[in-house]
Design brief:
Amidase signature (AS) enzymes; single chain; eleven-stranded mixed beta sheet; 15 helices
Length: 415
């Protein structure tokens, strides 16, 4: 194999690793190619910290495994021993962990090479990746529009071909929203399927670690390695699919054998004497996570995160307790309602907003279809602006793989 630059930058993870294992291209050659491109596109603020020496040293050791030599962008919420990890914040500008997050270790053990720590919304609490400390992430697909958040740097790096695979976190849509904004793929696993050890928390009852890539196939491969699962076969025939909101892809899904019907998710607010809102749990947990620094270091936070943390402080213990009851009841009802195998919707309810928007003004539209599945704990995948969710990750991934097999990958994968 004599691979040109464009081919190395565009190959899917499985093919790239296979070429390394066969000796057709070296991990060093791949790493050097991606590092050059990262330097050329530094103005897009996709990364907070890059690690060329570390990456080349690892590549020189001839990594093996299913991800041998595959360039990996890691969101800066994941600890990386000896490599600066800021969590997207100025408070942690000089923070160098002594441990590496479990998910990163797993991918490195499979042969992946970390090329840098991806930019993000500060502390992962935001849907735009406008970061006042490290620069606003540029959207390579929609110039002048936000890259989405909070894993915006990872999505932008994939779309710009600065990496082959990415690792993000998702607490209310943070791998799926940027996937939709940048025309890539983001998979939110079910709660607890992938370890969050060594990952800075946002709201622990909702936090998940998920893969990002330019294709469903690469996402499924990375997830299989993280969760110890096999990649399922593609399948949509005979699967009952509830349509939460029209996506424009209903006829195509029907052509693949899916059985479509209208569906509605269970309401997120409990009724009766224990009425409560699960959102109170989300806010109370964030407030608790930041208690060591906020409000003591309030001025070191960016304006929109200040604004949201101010509101989070107002949630009472009673509201949080009632919200937890409501959350448990919601998850119980969702075991059987709606009575379908999968549900689909757009990923975003609005177009990606302009880069000068005020994030709190666009949060509702950006999370309308993503946040409910963090409340439910369901696995969910965004293929650009098509979102597929369900109770079982194999069913979700099988459907997404069938879709990709029939209709091709995302726009970013085809560039």
């Amino acid at each position: 194999m004599t691979a040109g630059t464009d081919e190395l930058l565009s190959l899917p993870a499985e093919a790239l690793a296979a070429a390394v294992r066969r000796g057709e291209v070296s991990a060093v050659e791949i790493t050097e190619t991606f590092l050059r491109r990262i330097d050329e596109h530094a103005g897009g603020h996709a990364f907070i910290t890059t690690c060329p020496e570390r990456a080349l040293e690892r590549a020189a050791r001839r990594p093996s495994g299913p991800l041998a030599g595959v360039p990996l962008a890691v969101k800066d919420m994941f600890d990386t021993a000896g490599l600066r990890t800021t969590y997207g914040s100025a408070i942690f500008v000089d923070h160098v962990p002594t441990r590496t997050a479990s998910a990163v270790r797993q991918l490195e053990a499979a042969g992946a090479i970390v090329v840098g720590k991806a930019n993000q919304h500060e502390f992962a609490w935001g849907v735009t990746s406008q970061n006042p400390h490290w620069g606003t992430v540029a959207n390579p697909v929609r110039p002048g529009r936000v890259a989405g958040g909070s894993s915006g740097g990872t999505a932008a790096a994939l779309a710009e071909r600065l990496c082959t695979i990415g690792l993000g976190t998702d607490t209310g849509g943070s791998v799926r929203i940027p996937a939709a904004c940048c025309d890539v793929v983001g998979f939110k696993p079910p709660l607890g399927a992938v370890s969050t050890s060594g990952t800075f928390p946002l709201a622990p009852s909702f936090d998940t670690v998920g893969p990002m890539a330019r294709s469903v196939r690469d996402c499924a491969l990375v997830y299989a390695l993280l969760a110890g699962r096999a990649v399922p076969p593609p399948r949509l025939a005979g699967v009952r699919v509830g349509v939460l909101e029209p996506t424009g892809h209903e006829d195509e899904l029907t052509a693949l054998g899916a059985l479509l019907e209208e569906a509605v998710l269970p309401e997120s607010q409990a009724e009766g004497p224990h009425a409560g809102d699960p959102m109170a749990v989300f806010l109370a947990e964030i407030a608790a996570v930041h208690r060591p620094w906020f409000p003591r270091l309030r001025d070191q936070y960016g304006p929109d995160v200040q604004f949201k943390l101010d509101a989070a402080q107002l949630v009472s213990e009673r509201e949080a307790a009632q919200g937890r009851i409501a959350l448990g009841e919601l998850r119980r009802r969702a075991r059987t309602v709606p009575a379908v195998d999968l549900v689909i919707s757009p990923t975003l309810a609005i177009e990606p907003p302009p880069v000068d928007c005020w994030e709190p003004d666009v949060r509702a539209g950006m999370t309308r279809y993503t946040r409910p599945f963090n409340f439910l704990g369901w696995p969910t995948i965004a293929i650009g602006n098509l979102q597929i969710a369900g109770r079982d990750e194999r069913t979700v991934l099988s459907a997404a793989l069938a879709w990709e097999e029939a209709y091709g990958r995302t726009a970013a994968a085809r560039t």
